[in-house]
Amino acid sequence: MKSKSQTKILKKALPWLYLLPALVLVAVVVVFPIGYTGYISFTNMSLYHWKDYGVVGFRNYARAFSRADSEFLKSFFVTLLWTVVNMVLQVSLSFLIALGLNAPGLRLAKVYKTILMIPWALPGYVSILLWRVGVFNGEFGLLAKLAMLFGFGKTNFLMTYWGAFFSCLILNLWMAMPFMITMIDGALQSVDRSLYESAKIEGAGFFRTHIAITWPSIWPIIAPAVALTTFVQFKQFDIVYLLTLQPGGNTGAGLQTVITLAYTTAFASSNYGLSSAISTLIFLIILALFALLSRRAFKEAVL
Amino acid sequence: MKKWHHRHRPLDWIRLILLNLFFLVLCFIVVVPILYAVNISFSGAADSLSTATFFPSQFTFENYRKILFDYPFFTWLGNTVLLALGTTLFTLIPAVFGAYAFASKRFHGRKFMLYVLLVLNAFPAVLTMFALFRLFKDWHLLNSFWGLIVIYSGSLTIFSIWNMKGYFESIPSPIQEAAKIDGANEAQVLFQIVLPLARPAIIVTSILVLISVWNEYIFATTFLTGEGSYTLAAGLYTLQHNDYTRLWPLFAAGSILISLPILIIFYAMQRYMVSGLTAGGVKE
């Protein structure tokens, strides 16, 4: 009897034993630092209070929301704008490009696809740094050379707020669209071709056909990838940071997403309490986004 | 479909020509920054500042020689490889056991744990960087490869579990049941049946983890500050950081050297990259 109940316990514990190494690792490197960040957000930890910091309650949060003292709200709205503009452009342009790639009779489609994938294959930071010097640099960037060719003076788009925003946007589209094109291109292969025949008979044009037939058929397939990409856009750090904010290379554009703001508040301004408060607020926003994306939909799609 | 080809009207020809033109222009726009960097990497120093275009006026390998032999390029490469291999090992072992548990065991709390891991994966690692930085400073783990390997492994373990779970689930459970009836114990089922069958997923995930580490710069530049422990990312970063006017051709050459292996791997396993990304997300 005893051995039977022992095996029963072992059977129940077995999955957790398998999970143990992964869960310990995640607890130490992911969960604990999140909790510690939450704790720091309630202290006045800074360069001058590295060891002798004290708990200050919600003061950092109050600072984050007071317009005069902190850029949090401004950066939050820009991050939302950034996410929405990126997603709309990425999905609609990728949809059109993928449709083009699948046009009947386009023999070179495979070649085009292969070339369009190159930005995806390159290491992200290499692409960004190459663009920083090779495209955006005011002296020998391609844009500056183009501007001079047309008789304009030297220009550096990274030095103004909206110039930086659109430069980052263009680069982000360049880097992120290959993934979206691939996803939509894959989904297009599953569309029932016979639907097109009947649409043709009924005399539907290009846009009507693809909005009424193609889009509804591919949406369930690409929805998880779109959700994933939305998070990735919201989290975008590298492009804004490396193009406009890196130490010694700060262009003075003042463009900050919530993530770069949290980073520079800690590593440039050494205001660790405020930085951690911003980080904690972002965690809460992400949790809210997850709740919005409805647990049920998630479970159906992925679990 | 065939009918379509037979009925090529002039309008269709014009449409196809316009479509091809569109894609030629699009491809050109996509590769222009890369072509420019390739050109600069083969040019003499003078070309980079002139109004030079896409063909170097004097073709030279000098930039490649300099970056490889005048800079500690091979030290950077060694450090990167060490980090990448260490992280892969440190990530894959816990992740393989985790993916196996999630895929072939049904237990209380399974869905909840999967959901929690998904949420944790959505939290940007940069946001806890200061907390980790401070802890590591106090524990004297800054400038330690082990420290960085552990950090990388934390978030990559979640990714790897999710990436492999789908494939593990596709291994038919009757095979596992039959082995148990034949008297195989738990360990034998795992090591002699499941793992060999899951090998493709494990290999693809390992490569994706290797690439992630190869491509990572912000933790590498923050946590490894001694020049002897620079990774390729940190080395390249300093090249564009200090006096990039003069070093731009060198930087271009370095970028191409660092990107080439990744490009080759990417095109060699493009199919798996896509399926790996979707396997976790889309049910077939």
How would you describe what is shown here?
The complex is a heterodimer of chains A (303) and B (284). The relative contact order of chain A is 0.12. Chain A is globular, with a radius of gyration of 25 Å. Helices cover 72% and strands 0% of the residues of chain A. The two termini of chain A are 37 Å apart. Chain A is an all-alpha fold and 303 residues long. The longest helix of chain A is centred in the N-terminal third of the chain and has 39 residues, at 2-40. Chain B has two domains: 2-60, no CATH class; 66-279, MetI-like fold, CATH 1.10.3720.10. In chain B, helix 8 runs antiparallel to helix 11 (199-214), helix 9 (173-181) runs antiparallel to helix 10 (186-197) and helix 13 (232-241) runs antiparallel to helix 14 (244-268). Chain B starts with a helix and ends in a 5-residue tail after the last helix. In chain B, 38% of the residues are buried. At the A-B interface, helix 1, helix 3, helix 4, helix 5 and helix 6 of A face helix 2, helix 5, helix 6, helix 7 and helix 8 of B.
Structure summarized in a few sentences:
Chain A is built from 14 helices and no strands. With 303 residues, chain A is mostly helical.
